[in-house]
């Protein structure tokens, strides 16, 4: 049963203001426009809302016709996690590629160009970057989304990314606080747990977030993970000790705290989204991300009414909800000022990245990130090969719509290239039969995490030692094959960089 509200009182407006919901369709539905008029201050965009950059610009203009200071958020990490280029693959390599290059000026430039493109589309809040230290190589959800496994490297590139993104007028949202890198469970499906001592957490997980705060990150996203050394009872998103005691008071963070999506099973499957939303705001969160899966008006009303009822029942302090809503509005005001500063006459614009023009900085970065190991007899391919892509089950953060591998990019350089996709029930014999006499290019992703994939590759190399291997995940397996290319991610530009290496371009 929901609480009846008028849609106009201050309490209701504050409850709407802390929500960051999604919706379906490529134009704004009437219910969303109506709720914006009632006080909704943020909207999240997902791949289902996007066809092209001009369409997104028209959509955000439609939304801002209702409220000029609306926060329009997106999960655009670049690399494997892209929404703007969900159907083509990203023009920017992800964090692991940038960490592999380890040039903070390049990271800053890439983030600024990504931010410029988002700003052109009317997006002013990016749920990025990931500041997680990927210390667990079997992590199923972070992997190439992290800058790396070394704390100092992650910290300096997190800061550079934030500086670049916010220089373009787009607020950063550093995630997943206090660090999701040492997990072996995906919080979309269950509750991860990190069992390390407090000293380790401060020396490893928290260092990149300290760097993010020093760099001025406008928002921070909490993780749905349990860290007993900090709070043995509640995951970070629901923990006053972590969000208020650690992030606000100990680390001195004064920006917006955003929850990771409340419909993820770590929350929805335990306390439920309504109770979880109330507990998150009470713990210190200021905004609630929802809409990756639940994207309807009913969800917005359920969460709005749960917050209103919690205040009226004394379960949530009205001052805490008001403070959270005020922080949302403060960030919205910053984005308006930043938009004006970036658009002002005389504002600094990097050469080659002026509005309306393209930049190949993403491809430049992808080329620099590629690590190539060649056998003594290696020669670039001159004839069209057969590309065999070994495809694992993807984590939910990576859209199933986003293409990856190198078949298309290699076909552009070697016309006639053919491709096939292989899963857990495939064998090397299947690849050999499909390839015939063609040279084989085997594309893998996190080979070290998938024994079936490693076994198929072993058999393929035993039969055809001249096979080329392209690793598009975390490159922990030993390089092998006539040529081995580690791209450090599966963005479209990473595939292009690998194709160039294979074709000798």
Short structural description:
The protein has helices at residues 10-17, 30-38, 53-64, 95-101, 104-120, 151-167, 198-205, 207-214, 240-250, 265-268, 273-283, 297-312, 318-343, 361-369, 407-413, 428-435, 451-463, 492-503; strands spanning 19-20, 42-45, 71-74, 125-126, 171-177, 219-222, 256-259, 287-289, 371-374, 386-390, 418-422, 440-444, 468-471, 483-486. The chain has 505 residues and is of the alpha/beta class. The strands form two sheets. The chain has an eight-stranded parallel sheet with strand order 1-8-7-6-5-4-3-2. A six-stranded mixed sheet has the order 9-14-13-12-10-11, sandwiched between helices.
Task: Give an account of the 3D structure.
- By secondary structure, the chain is α/β, with parallel strands linked by helices.
- It is built from 18 helices and 14 strands.
- It has helices at residues 10-17, 30-38, 53-64, 95-101, 104-120, 151-167, 198-205, 207-214, 240-250, 265-268, 273-283, 297-312, 318-343, 361-369, 407-413, 428-435, 451-463, 492-503, and strands at residues 19-20, 42-45, 71-74, 125-126, 171-177, 219-222, 256-259, 287-289, 371-374, 386-390, 418-422, 440-444, 468-471, 483-486.
- It has an eight-stranded parallel β-sheet. Strands 9-14-13-12-10-11 form a six-stranded mixed β-sheet, sandwiched between helices.
- β2 (42-45), α3 and β3 form a beta-alpha-beta unit.
- α1 packs across α12 (297-312) and α16 packs across α17 (451-463).
- The radius of gyration is 23 Å and the shape is globular.
């Amino acid at each position: 049963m929901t609480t009846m509200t008028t849609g106009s009182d201050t309490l209701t407006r504050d409850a709407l203001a802390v929500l960051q919901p999604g919706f379906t369709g490529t134009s704004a539905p009437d219910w969303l426009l109506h709720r914006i008029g009632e006080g909704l201050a943020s909207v999240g965009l997902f791949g289902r809302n996007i066809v092209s950059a001009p369409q997104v610009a028209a959509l955000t203009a439609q939304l801002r016709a209702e409220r000029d200071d609306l926060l329009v958020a997106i999960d655009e990490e670049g690399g494997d996690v892209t929404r703007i280029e969900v159907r083509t693959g990203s023009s920017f390599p992800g964090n692991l590629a940038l960490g592999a290059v380890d040039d903070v000026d390049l990271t800053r430039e890439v983030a600024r160009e990504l931010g410029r493109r988002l700003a052109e589309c009317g997006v002013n809040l990016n749920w990025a970057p990931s500041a997680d230290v990927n210390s667990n190589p079997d992590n199923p959800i972070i992997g190439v989304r992290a800058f790396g496994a070394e704390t100092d490297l992650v910290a300096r590139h997190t800061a550079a990314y934030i500086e670049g993104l916010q220089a373009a007028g787009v607020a950063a949202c550093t995630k997943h606080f206090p660090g999701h890198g040492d997990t072996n469970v995906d919080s979309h499906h269950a509750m991860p747990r990190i069992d390390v001592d407090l000293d380790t957490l401060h020396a490893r997980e928290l260092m990149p977030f300290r760097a993010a705060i020093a760099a001025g990150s406008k928002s921070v996203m909490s993780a749905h993970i349990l860290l007993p050394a900090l709070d043995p009872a509640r995951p970070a998103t629901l923990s006053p000790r972590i969000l208020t005691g650690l992030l606000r008071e100990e680390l001195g963070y004064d920006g917006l705290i955003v929850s990771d999506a409340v419909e993820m099973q770590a929350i929805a499957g335990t306390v439920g989204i309504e109770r979880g939303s109330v507990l998150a705001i009470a713990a210190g969160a200021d905004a609630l991300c929802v809409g990756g899966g639940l994207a309807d008006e009913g969800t917005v009303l359920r969460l709005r009414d749960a917050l209103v009822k919690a205040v009226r029942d004394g379960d949530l302090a009205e001052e805490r909800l008001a403070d959270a809503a005020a922080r949302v509005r403060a960030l919205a005001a910053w984005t308006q000022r930043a938009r004006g500063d970036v658009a002002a006459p005389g504002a600094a614009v990097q050469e080659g990245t002026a509005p309306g023009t393209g930049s190949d900085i993403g491809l430049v970065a992808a080329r620099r990130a590629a690590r190539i190991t060649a056998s003594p007899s290696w020669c670039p391919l001159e004839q069209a090969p057969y590309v065999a892509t070994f495809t694992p089950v993807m984590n939910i953060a990576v859209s199933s719509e986003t293409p990856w591998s190198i078949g298309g990019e290699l076909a552009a350089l070697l016309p006639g290239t053919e491709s096939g996709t292989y899963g857990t029930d495939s064998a090397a014999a299947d690849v050999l039969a499909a390839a015939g006499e063609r040279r084989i290019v085997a594309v893998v992703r996190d080979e070290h995490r998938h024994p079936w994939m490693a076994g198929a590759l072993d058999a393929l190399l035993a039969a055809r030692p001249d096979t080329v291997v392209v690793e598009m995940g975390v490159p922990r397996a030993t390089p092998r094959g006539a040529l081995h290319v580690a791209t450090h991610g599966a963005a479209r530009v990473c595939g292009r960089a690998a194709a160039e290496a294979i074709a000798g371009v």
